[in-house]
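Changelog note: in this version the structure field was regenerated for every chain. One regenerated record is shown below for reference.
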Amino acid sequence: QTEQAEPTSSPENIIFSSVEARSLTVSWNEVPPSGQNGPITGYLLYYTNTTFSDTINITGGENRSYTLTKLRPYTNYTVTVSAYNDVGTGPTSDNRIQQTEQDEPGVVSNLMSSGSDVDQISITWNQPSMPNGIIIMYDIRYRESDNND
């Protein structure tokens, strides 16, 4: 029997089995037996976007799926996975990139009105700081009021 060594191969076939606005479920196949070099005892899931990165430690060699939560809508995330055993951590998988789904936009800012014509008013605003996707229209609602409102 040879001595155990860190894995020399990475997990294969990384997929996003569920894609939501604020979560991604990542799944992968085990490290090929020839690259395990001993029992796999867990995985490190690395994920990043343009402003954030984190690593999740997933214990147990049979756990090959994880749901990332509290993500930003309509944002690209890069994910890689590496396996580890009692000796060390193996190489990371190829990068996989997935965009989260769109969600309701945040609130507009700097809403301003101008004009004193009795028949019309002009309004302007800034788009939400968190558009959470592609804004395709604005819903403008108004009501008549007397001077006491």
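Spot check on this record: The chain is about 0% helix and 40% strand. The mean pLDDT is 93.
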